[in-house]
């Protein structure tokens, strides 16, 4: 049941035949849950989506999402991490895989599963076996030197979100410097600034996700097309 | 050295008039003395024990449609003697039949080496109430070695296999097993329609089984507290059909 | 084969074990375990009861898989019958599912494939036994790994929950090692006998803790 009968452990991370799994990581308090809620509201009318939360101690994040009614209850699953939130998204992803598979079974048409981590330090990274793409969320109040210090999450995430920009003047954070520093450690991968207070739709992040799904669908279409042509050739010969 | 008793007692209950069973067999043997009263068959215990060396068996057959209650007149006291003592109860409960087995507690006295076993086979629509209490030693006494094994199958499929082993003192007083409890017990309610919500409180767990049945287990400082917990656990169980579980008989028969 | 067995026993095996405390978290919540001696006492009791039962089931599963047997539903029923707590049955199946995923990606085995059809996911000991058989291991080795995991999982949870000194916890495990071997040997003795006779040692307090845990708001571990 739970096993991936046909799962090729060495396959490239492509969401063919299943939902795209998007990891959202970042330090505790950086706004992961609020971002997740905003993304659900922004995307739920155009995408079939679900959320897995990795709460540290309670089901508070899942409860928050349920309370906010961003999705129906059967689309939100909480995973417990045994006091090791990093382990659950990186070293031993089985509980998260189980949760994703159960959601996929319940909702076979899912386009997107957001896997929200339980709050990490800067070295945390989603396993490729769990997340097809990952977002790392920092907030400006956490210190404007964080991007310069780097860390696996900041450097390697597919998208870096610098959140709560409305607080920058209050805490004396230099947004321009944060952007420059992040650009240096990230080798050109995108960075967006976000303020859910000013733009509650998380427009920048939602647009990035749409782009990812569009590109994948395009790739997938070409792949299918290629496959079809091969078959035609085979039939003709 | 005295040789222990080897006793084979048996009861066969057929459906009778007015709810009481018609006993087509009632065989007492040695210390296993049986008496029929209007509400139950009683083990009246013709000798102290079981003592080391005793090998006792009680065979219960409840024929289709019959109802049998088994009680005992007094606590049984497992005592040391010549080797290990054994008490085995075998029960077969036929279609639509009901067995209610609820003897007084067993006390595992210091130095005892007792092995209790119960093997019950239920027909698919038979019902069962099986009540067991074990007191770990007489007053302020460390219990001896006591193991009890309880095997229940429904139409041949295992419903519950449950052992309590008081063999390794360190293991059984572990805070994962019995802790400092002075008494431990369980009630199994089995049959179609038996249900309960899982529940856990101090010393009490109500455990709906994978098959048709609910196991209530409890640990307590003493036998009286244990009995209160088990009664509370039993109240949390629902039985779709049939009367409420028979209450523990309060008085012994004359 | 030896290295494969080590992989199977390794706590770094990505099979979900890190999120299960084997009843330790509720015992800590109840105040029953606060220090290393109490943890050692907890582990000793767990080993002698659910550890023995799981090890015997794993040994039987290993022997069954090695014989090419297909009676997994019957072994599943024997496991259910020895696990009266619904919370523990669910935890065993959750860990079984996770282990099965890991095992099937690493080792080819018809027994593992057959276990994939178990409704709700297979029980953990059955998968451990079948995985051990897939690498040619003996029932005794399946029992050893299972008994070992019965204490190392909760021990690691104790370190995380209470901040216990990991060196002291490791010493406690070293003291228990002989008991782990003895339990595995006893368990393996049942591998080829009738399943009905497999040990069924119960731990009333573990059952109680398992149920209480599921009804607790604040918890870090699945079980």
From TrEMBL, chain A:
Q: Where in the cell is it found?
A: Cytoplasm
Q: Which UniProt keywords apply?
A: Chaperone, Cytoplasm, GTP-binding, Nickel insertion, Nucleotide-binding
> Which Pfam families does this UniProt record tie to the protein?
cobW
Domain CobW/HypB/UreG nucleotide-binding: where? 22-192
Q: Source organism's superkingdom?
A: Bacteria
> By its UniProt entry, which InterPro entries does this protein fall under?
CobW/HypB/UreG_nucleotide-bd, P-loop_NTPase, UreG
The UniProt record gives the binding positions of GTP as 26-33
Major subcellular location class: cytoplasm
What is known about what this protein does? Facilitates the functional incorporation of the urease nickel metallocenter. This process requires GTP hydrolysis, probably effectuated by UreG.
Q: Which family does it belong to?
A: Belongs to the SIMIBI class G3E GTPase family. UreG subfamily.
Quaternary context: Homodimer. UreD, UreF and UreG form a complex that acts as a GTP-hydrolysis-dependent molecular chaperone, activating the urease apoprotein by helping to assemble the nickel containing metallocenter of UreC. The UreE protein probably delivers the nickel.
What is the recorded name of this protein? Urease accessory protein UreG
Species of provenance: Actinomadura parmotrematis
TrEMBL record, chain B:
UniProt-annotated location(s): Cytoplasm
Per the record, the similarity remark reads: Belongs to the UreD family.
State the species of origin: Actinomadura parmotrematis
State the oligomer form and interacting partners.
Answer: UreD, UreF and UreG form a complex that acts as a GTP-hydrolysis-dependent molecular chaperone, activating the urease apoprotein by helping to assemble the nickel containing metallocenter of UreC. The UreE protein probably delivers the nickel.
The organism's superkingdom is given as: Bacteria
User: What Pfam families does this protein map onto?
Assistant: UreD (PF01774)
Keywords per UniProt: Chaperone, Cytoplasm, Nickel insertion
Chaperone is among the record's keywords: yes
Protein known as: Urease accessory protein UreD
- In UniProt terms, what function does this protein have? Required for maturation of urease via the functional incorporation of the urease nickel metallocenter.
Automatic annotation (TrEMBL), chain C:
* InterPro entries in UniProt: UreF, UreF_sf
The reply to whether Cytoplasm figures as a keyword in the UniProt entry is: yes
Keyword terms of this UniProt record: Chaperone, Cytoplasm, Nickel insertion
Instruction: Give yes or no: UniProt keyword Cytoplasm.
Output: yes
Which Pfam families does the entry link to?
Answer: UreF
List the subcellular locations. Answer: Cytoplasm
The main place the protein resides is cytoplasm
Q: What do we know about how this protein assembles, alone or with others?
A: UreD, UreF and UreG form a complex that acts as a GTP-hydrolysis-dependent molecular chaperone, activating the urease apoprotein by helping to assemble the nickel containing metallocenter of UreC. The UreE protein probably delivers the nickel.
UniProt xrefs under PANTHER family: UREASE ACCESSORY PROTEIN F
What's this protein's family per the entry?
Belongs to the UreF family.
Briefly state the protein's biological role: Required for maturation of urease via the functional incorporation of the urease nickel metallocenter.
Name assigned to this protein? Urease accessory protein UreF
Q: Which organism is it from?
A: Actinomadura parmotrematis
